[in-house]
Specification:
The chain is mostly helical. Helix content is 60%, strand content 0%.
Length: 226
């Protein structure tokens, strides 16, 4: 997954473009069948028995709205591997809204793909500090560390994403791919099976994933893909 945009990352966004939050919560394009509940600005009824009142969210300011639109455009370019144009849009978004954890996260991931690992990881960590439950940032922290060859840190970050969403097949897949690089068949089977259990389409992606080349001929790995 180091020399091209990982299949898991492409599929991560294949589930919709308007979920509130970020690729996990902002940009899932239609495809893999995953869904994320969108945030609501409707307060819970005060009169409903047992309901807890939640105030409506504050509408975004004009700058915040424009920053969000720039971020969305940049994220589309990012998934098309047009990193420099994407980076420009993320920077424009952050100029308008420096607190945009979504743009920080996306800029950090873009830096990682450009080989600027430390800068990218630092930005993603800023996003996590701003929004600790932002699952996509934890995923990207794993991805950035994986691209940098920092296997333990990558696995820990993917595990953090899984702790936030136990149905996150791509973090399971990310962990499996790291173990695949090292030829650790039992751990590949353990984590890849969890990803497949969530979405059977993982099989087709894993069958072409170069990270699994060291274990590809093992009967245990082959059995997973049947």
């Amino acid at each position: 997954m180091k020399h091209m945009l990982p299949a898991k990352v492409i599929s991560w966004v294949m589930a919709g473009l308007v979920v509130a939050g970020g690729v996990v919560g902002l940009l899932f394009l239609p495809g893999c069948g995953r869904s994320q509940p969108s945030a609501t600005t409707e307060p819970a009824s005060k009169t409903t028995q047992g309901a807890v009142y939640q105030p409506a969210e504050t509408p975004p300011s004009p700058n915040e709205q424009t920053a969000l639109e720039l971020y969305q455009k940049g994220l589309k370019l990012y998934y098309q591997r047009q990193y420099q144009p994407a980076l420009s849009l993320f920077n424009q978004a952050l100029a308008l809204d420096p607190r945009s954890y979504k743009a920080l996260n996306a800029k950090g991931a873009t830096y990682a793909f450009l080989g600027r690992y430390d800068e990218g990881i630092a930005l993603i960590q800023q996003a996590i500090t701003m929004k600790p439950d932002f699952e996509y940032a934890h995923f990207n922290l794993g991805l950035a560390n994986e691209l940098a060859g920092r296997w333990d840190q990558a696995i820990a970050a993917y595990q953090s994403a899984i702790a936030l969403n136990g149905q996150d097949e791509w973090s399971y897949y990310g962990i499996a791919s790291i173990y695949g690089r090292h030829g650790n068949v039992p751990m590949v089977v353990q984590y890849l099976q969890k990803a497949i259990n969530i979405w059977d389409g993982v099989k087709a992606i894993a069958s072409k994933e170069h990270d699994f080349d060291p274990v590809r001929n093992d009967p245990r790995f082959q059995a997973l893909l049947k």
